[in-house]
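Below is how a single chain appears once it has passed through the pipeline. First comes the sequence as given, then the structure the pipeline wrote out for it. We keep one example in the README because the format questions we get most often are answered faster by looking than by reading.
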Amino acid sequence: MKLNTRLFELYKGKYGSLPELARAMGISVGHIYKVKQGKRGIGGSFIIGAIKAFPEYNLGDLFYVNEGQLVKSSSNLPEFREYARRKYPNELDEDLITMIEDSIERRRGKNNDNGE
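Resulting structure:
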């Protein structure tokens, strides 16, 4: 399984450039270009940065596994947890994984409260 991102399509509507997106994510410009070019995988700092830069999106909107398989519903959260444990055992500890899941649930709650 490979984690992919839609950030490179989404950023154009909100940020003027990749360096501006990198600043919003709190990562280096080099980091963002390496991920875009496929020279670097998506890790914990990239995931957290994406959540910071795009708080209006849930994790399933920002990332997907393999070709088009979205990580979308809350029933997939245990799968995300297991994926994160296997793929990023040193980068994402249990507290960080829980924080990501909590963030997703809060956003889902806000979206449901707004009638979306």
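The longest strand covers residues 3-5.

See the next section for the split statistics.
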